[in-house]
Each structure stands twice: as structure tokens, then as C-alpha cells.
Specification:
Rossmann fold, 3 domains, disordered C terminus
């Protein structure tokens, strides 16, 4: 059932297409007379927002930003200074106005508290502060991230420069919204991409490869929104998904896709409640089906629009299929027959079929496209193929011998297990650098879960999880390395920006009564939860230009 009349009207009742104004005589369309002495809009804006030239203090030690540091940092610095100057001009309290002008001077000098690193750190916190701080922090970070992305793509000639002219600064940000796509294919299979349950934006990474522009990405987790904003253009909305937010979600999608010639929709609801990697047997099929039901409701609605998507897809653990199709535990109540048909015809795909060194299995239900694997089993890539430096680093490790000896003396590992650990360069997929050091027992009588999650480098791994992964007895993998395992190219992984600090954690049990604190690393969790962009790129490429609409 269609949840709202989104085929014709916006949710608030305003018409999708504005009414045509009363007809004019042809001569009424000529440009009216202008008072040439009247200041232009640009001049009037500048007069209001900007200080007079003689009010801007001079200084002798101004840093030449383009020569001394990242040019994108200098642009961010100047944009921040523009906001501070505007604040000073509009501040009625003379003392506060002088303080803001002092801050302006310090920022432009590049004082010791306003290095590039400090600016980024402060803007991240401003983005969580008061209304004005949030506005400034987000604007500066967005401009910085977009400039950096453009530069990483090799375009340094058209890099945005934040002008002291408020109009130019605002216009510069506006025209850069999709500038990261300059020079990419102009024959994109679809024009725009919309995602829910977006995570860090793996479909958005795939879209960039084929020239499709992300126009809307939605996720409930604030950390995902931060990461999306740091890496992808388009609108990013934090929203949890439930029947109560369906109409809002449809409204956002409607607004984002109005005017597009073609677009794609993708949803990746959480799989943690049903996935095989749920090791403790606390599976919740009803909870998992809530996310699937929401995505199904979205697709049932947008299928009926005047401008429906050219392709739709949903990714989920294969464990959801029996609950979808045969109604185990009556978990499929409220699921439409159209959505069931999608799932019934869906293949189970592994990332290794598309060039990633992981055999992670996922159900991909699609309409308007079809996956065509690029790698056969004999062509599956190993960790060594993607990260060849790890094996040598494992052999050169100074800590490996000591840890193995500790395991031997403690009696926690059999001679066979010890031989395996000593001669097989490997990853520990549960995240611990020294798996088994504290509690695991690896012998013939009892093999711990940790032993089963030691993965040789000459093979693809089963799956990255929220723990991340470590080079056994050596170190944790970096975010860049883990992204490459998930399917990012080396260039994409290097350019990908996590705004969180490497040590930043969150409490997975926050707000849950009776639960102990269980902190997880934010960056590792985001990477472990993502999907392979290689699969989604394959789906996009199989839509094809000029393909007849399905609906």
C-alpha cells in the first residue's frame, strides 16, 4: 500500500509542480528599466556582512598558506576567518566584538592554537555546539573535505578558494557541491543515487566510479553521518527508520530525486541480529525483519511514483531469507508480495566474486539490474594479493616469538597449533593482536573460537567484523588496509577520511538497562559493518544507459 500521495504532492500538501502564473503580454517579459546608480545585490550583501577594508588589521607575520601548508587548510582558515569577521561586525557588545576581531587576527596569523590540526579538531567540536558554532563548524569542515577530495583526484587548478567576499565564498561552496565528479565518466548508468542505512557510503564509492552522483544518504547513527559528510557529496540526514519515520523518509527521497532523469535506490538494513557471525546465539529475527520491512515499504512506494527509480536493491545477511519467504516465527507479517518476489529471485553473493579478498556472503535482492560476478573461485584474491607487505612484516615481527613462547609455556596451545601459528602469516579476525594470550585454549581437548578466527594471508578471509583485524602478534590493521579488504582501491582507501580520532570509542550498550559498558572502536566498527563497493558498482554498470524503465 502506498503510504502517502508522493506521486503528486509533497507530504506537507504543497503541490509538486507550482501553478502557472497568469499570462503576460510579450512586452512585459523585456528587462525593466534599472537604476544604474542602485548598488547590486552583491554590493549590498558585502556592505552588510563584511568589514570595511580599513577595519581589517594589518600584520607582518601572516603565513603564506599556499607555500607553508595544505592549501585546503588555508582555504578553510580563511572561510572560518570570514565567519568570525561577520560575527564581530554584528556583535552589539563592544567587548565581545573586540574579542572576535582578536580571534580573527590570531586565526589569520596561524597562531599556535590555530594550526591545521587544531582547526580541524575545533571545528569538529563546534559542529556539536551552539547553533552558530554548528553552522560555522559544518560549513568549514564541508568546504575543507570537498577541497581535499578534489585535490586528491588530481585537480589542483580549480580548487575552491574561500574569499573574504561573502558572496564569493558562499558561491564557491555552492559550485563545489559536485565538483569531485569533474573528469569522471559522463555516461553514468543512472544520474543520481539514494541510500538508506548508508553506513560509510560503500554504494556512494561505487557511484563515483561510474559517474553517478549521490543525492541523498540517510542513517540513524551520528558517526555514520559524520563519515558520509567527510567523503561524499549530496544531502546527509540522520534518521532512525521505523513506521513512524516512513513518510519523512519518502519525503526526503522525493525532494532529492525531483528533476533527475534517472536514479537508483539502495538499502542495507542492519544484519547483526540475524547474521551467522552472531556468535552468541542471541538472534532476533523479528528485530532484523523490522529493517527489511522498512526498506520494502520504501520500495513499494517509490515504485508507484511518476519518476520511479531505474534500479532498486537491498543487501542483507542470507539468514533473513527463510524468515522472509516461509514466515518462520511469523516474522514476515506486513511484507508485500512484490518484496518477497525480489528476495525469492535474489542470489547470494560473496565479495570474493567481485575481486575483494573476503568471502563474506550476502543476499542481494534487486530490480532493474543483475549481478554478473567477475571472478571465479580459482581467481579469488587473497590478502597477500591485496596487501602484499603484510607477510614480510609478519616475518620481521619482534614480538611474535615472545608471544608464541608464552603460549607454549602456559600450555594453552598444542604443538600442532603452535606450529601453525609459527609458520603461517595470518590475520586475527577477532581484533586481538595476541589471540589466546588471556583465555583461549588451543589444544586437542578444547579449541577456542579465537583459533578458528586465525586466517592465513594466502587465502581470502571470511569476513571483517566490528572488531577490525590485526596482523597476528604484530599490530592492528590500519583503516586504509581494512578498507582495501572490503573492496576500496588503494587510491580510494588512502583518500577516504574518517573524521573520528583513531582511538575514539562508543558504548554499544548505552541506554540499555542492566547492560555493562561495552565500548567499540568507532572506525573499525564502521568498516566492519560496510559492504563491498565492487558488488554495487557491478549492479550499476548492469543498468546501462538508455535501458527502458521497468515501471
Amino acid at each position: 500500500m502506498v503510504s502517502g500521495n508522493f506521486s503528486q504532492n509533497r507530504p506537507n500538501g504543497s503541490p509538486r509542480i507550482t501553478t502557472t502564473p497568469e499570462g503576460n503580454e510579450p512586452f512585459d517579459l523585456l528587462e525593466p528599466e534599472r537604476n544604474l546608480e542602485e548598488p547590486s545585490l552583491r554590493e549590498r550583501v558585502n556592505e552588510i556582512l563584511l568589514p570595511d577594508d580599513d577595519s581589517i588589521p594589518d600584520w607582518d607575520n601572516k603565513v603564506d598558506m599556499n607555500e607553508s601548508e595544505d592549501p585546503c587548510c588555508s582555504e578553510a582558515r580563511e572561510l572560518l576567518a570570514t565567519y568570525i569577521s561577520e560575527k564581530a561586525q554584528n556583535e552589539p557588545n563592544a567587548t565581545m566584538a573586540n574579542a572576535y576581531m582578536g580571534l580573527y587576527e590570531d586565526i589569520m596569523r596561524g597562531g599556535e592554537d590555530w594550526s591545521c590540526e587544531d582547526i580541524q579538531w575545533k571545528m569538529e567540536r563546534w559542529a556539536q555546539g551552539s547553533d552558530w558554532e554548528r553552522k560555522v563548524g559544518n560549513a568549514v569542515l564541508d568546504a575543507w573535505n570537498k577541497c581535499s577530495e578534489k585535490t586528491r583526484l588530481g585537480d589542483t587548478t580549480g580548487t575552491f578558494t574561500a574569499s573574504k567576499d561573502g558572496f564569493e565564498a558562499g558561491w564557491g561552496i555552492l559550485i563545489k557541491e559536485y565538483s569531485v565528479y569533474d573528469g569522471l565518466p559522463d555516461d553514468a548508468p543512472v544520474e543520481g543515487l539514494v541510500t538508506t542505512h548508508s553506513g560509510i557510503g560503500a554504494p556512494e564509492v561505487a557511484a563515483k566510479r561510474v559517474g553517478t552522483k549521490p543525492v541523498l544518504s540517510m542513517d540513524g547513527w551520528d558517526q555514520s553521518i559524520r563519515t558520509l559528510g567527510a567523503n561524499h557529496p549530496g544531502k546527509h540526514i540522520q534518521q532512525w527508520f521505523s513506521p513512524d519515520t516512513l513518510d519523512d523518509t519518502l519525503g526526503h527521497i522525493h525532494d532529492a530525486t525531483t528533476g533527475l532523469d534517472s536514479w537508483a535506490f539502495h538499502g542495507s538494513p542492519s544484519c547483526t541480529k540475524i547474521a551467522a557471525s552472531n556468535l552468541h546465539g542471541k538472534k532476533d529475527p523479528h528485530g532484523a525483519m523490522d529493517g527489511m520491512r522498512f526498506v520494502g515499504d520504501v520500495m513499494d512506494n517509490i515504485r508507484e511514483w511518476e519518476n520511479p527509480p531505474s534500479m532498486m536493491s537491498v543487501e542483507q545477511s542470507p539468514g533473513v531469507i527463510p524468515y522472509m519467504l516461509d514466515g518462520r516465527k511469523r516474522a514476515n507479517q506486513g511484507i508485500s508480495e512484490d518484496f518477497k518476489t525480489m528476495v525469492r529471485n535474489s542470489p547470494t553473493l560473496t565479495s570474493s566474486m567481485f575481486g575483494s579478498p573476503t568471502t563474506r556472503r550476502r543476499m542481494w535482492a534487486t530490480e532493474g539490474t543483475m549481478a554478473t560476478p567477475t571472478h571465479t573461485p580459482d581467481q579469488y584474491r587473497s590478502i597477500n594479493d591485496v596487501l602484499p607487505h603484510l607477510a614480510q612484516e609478519w616475518y620481521d615481527s619482534d614480538t611474535k616469538a615472545a608471544e608464541l613462547e608464552h603460549l607454549r609455556q602456559s600450555g594453552r596451545v598444542s604443538e600442532k597449533g603452535l606450529e601453525y601459528l609459527a609458520e603461517s602469516p595470518s590475520l586475527a579476525l577477532l581484533g586481538s593482536i595476541n589471540p589466546g594470550k588471556d583465555r583461549a585454549v588451543w589444544n586437542d581437548d578444547k579449541k577456542s573460537m579465537a583459533f578458528g578466527h586465525i586466517n592465513r594471508l594466502d587465502k581470502p578471509i571470511h569476513s571483517l567484523r566490528h572488531h577490525g583485524a590485526s596482523l597476528t602478534h604484530t599490530r592492528h590493521l590500519t583503516p586504509e588496509e581494512m578498507l582495501q579488504i572490503q573492496g576500496w582501491t588503494p587510491e580510494e582507501a588512502k583518500a577516504f577520511n574518517f573524521p573520528q580520532k583513531p582511538s575514539e570509542t562508543y558504548d554499544v550498550n548505552a541506554g540499555k538497562p542492566g547492560k555493562k559498558k561495552n565500548p567499540n572502536n568507532v572506525i573499525r566498527t564502521q568498516i566492519g559493518n560496510t559492504l563491498s563497493p565492487n558488488i554495487y558498482e557491478n549492479l550499476l554498470r548492469n543498468v546501462g544507459l538508455g535501458q527502458q524503465r521497468l515501471y
